[in-house]
Amino acid sequence: xxxxxxxxxxxLKALGIYEETLIVFLSDHGESLGEHGYIGHNQLNxxxxxxxxxxxxxxIQATQIDAPLESxxxxxxxxELLKIQSNSNGFQGKSIVPLIGNPSAFDKNRPxxxxxxxxxxxxxxxxxxxxxxxxxxxxQLYNLEMDRHEMQNIGARNPEVIExxxxxxxxxxxxxxxxxxxxxxxxxxxxxLDEETNDQLKALGYVSQ
Length: 209
Known about the structure:
- With 209 residues, the protein is of the alpha+beta class.
- The longest helix is centred in the C-terminal third of the chain and has 22 residues.
- The radius of gyration is 20 Å and the shape is globular.
- It starts with a helix and ends in a 5-residue tail after the last helix.
């Protein structure tokens, strides 16, 4: 990966456009290597959710933002950096551009939500809740300030915190339904994938065989 990224960057520099090119490097998930007795991904622990987000932004000096973000923040960030006016207010993420000049401006009370199959993770501040909307899994509540590796489930002692953290998720679900309603196909039409795209999605596991 390093070698191929180097080839890309060298080509941009050879063309004289590296300094004016916006580059976004983002990973989709991390990997458990034995944490919580698990090897692989598809879980909602911190070790799998903390991923690299590295941006080369023309005209901006290097800085580090330690605030927890969401991958859905990337698109509104790109739109703002490229000064693209959107006719839709449908972004669920938030641009991180204001944090570049002031990393401490992060809203600590902003809910950060992740989903994986039948499980949901909601983080607000230092509290993290992992639960199953259909009740299939035991609810897990952690305090990252006291338990960075999420080893002590304190849910039984804090039922009020659990209920408080569930609310942002159900609000997000309601908002997503309203947003998706803007993209309904015309009556009688069905989405069509070309054969190559369909095969690629199958290979990635996003379309059943």
